[in-house]
Amino acid sequence: MSDETTALVLALATEIAELRAALAEAQELLIETAVDAGEMHARLEEVQKELAVARADRDAWMIRARR
Q1: Longest dimension (CA), the chain
Q2: How many angstroms separate the CA atoms of 6 and 12, rounded?
């Protein structure tokens, strides 16, 4: 291999290694985002249930107040 070819191969290998590192970091961030989204979804469901109970309590109170 000529010096130019060797330099090109080394440059490509370096770029591939950098791209793989960037991909690994992006995948890690995506996993963290997915975990966060799952936790937020679960919390949202809890809040919706709490809201339904609060609305039912409010409606019951309003019915009693009208009597």
Answers
A1: 97
A2: 10
